[in-house]
Amino acid sequence: MLLIGTSPQEDLSGDKMKITRKQLRQIIKEEKAKVLAEQKIRRIVRRKLMEQATWPQASDLLSVLQSNPRDSKTFDQIMTMVQGLGKTPEVDMAVDALLAIEDAESPDEMASAADYAIDYVRDAFTAAARSGRIEQ
User: pLDDT digit of tens for each residue in the chain (136 aa)?
Assistant: First the structure.
């Protein structure tokens, strides 16, 4: 149990401890600083991950997906990369194009959907690079 008092004092039984308002403010200030530092680190890591999401990587994955449209691991990787570009109309169109590969019923439809997806994914990466969200 923590009691706020006017002077610091610890009960010998160990059950209660009084702290001053000044001490409480200092504790809150320190905890807030920790949380803000963690958030900053998360932002830096997220930014670095996004910088790694480049068009050449995506293009390589799309080539694999084009030759084997049923490759769920590659599909998931490219979908994650595209969605990581942010919420833009280009990303939405690229996601729809990728989902069309999954929805295709015949091998010809899958090949056509993969060709279609390549163009839209490229557009999403180009738009992200233009806006400075990633390096091209």
Answer: 455 554 455 455 556 788 999 999 999 999 999 999 998 887 777 666 655 667 788 888 888 888 888 888 888 888 988 888 888 999 999 999 999 988 988 888 888 888 889 899 999 988 888 887 776 5
Instruction: Confirm whether 136 is domain-assigned.
Output: no
The answer to whether residues 45 and 58 belong to one domain is no
Question: 126 and 92, same structural domain?
Answer: yes
Confidence (pTM): 0.58
Phi, then psi, of 3 in degrees rounded to 5:
-110, 140
Instruction: For residue 57, give the nearest of 85, 36, 29 by alpha carbon.
Output: 85
DSSP code at position 8? -
- CA–CA dist 136, 131 (Å, integer): 11
Q: What is the DSSP string of 125-136?
A: HHHHHHTTSS--
If one counts every other C-beta atom within 10 angstroms of the C-beta of residue 64, the result is 16
Structural domain count, the chain: 2
| Domain residue limits at 60 | 53-130
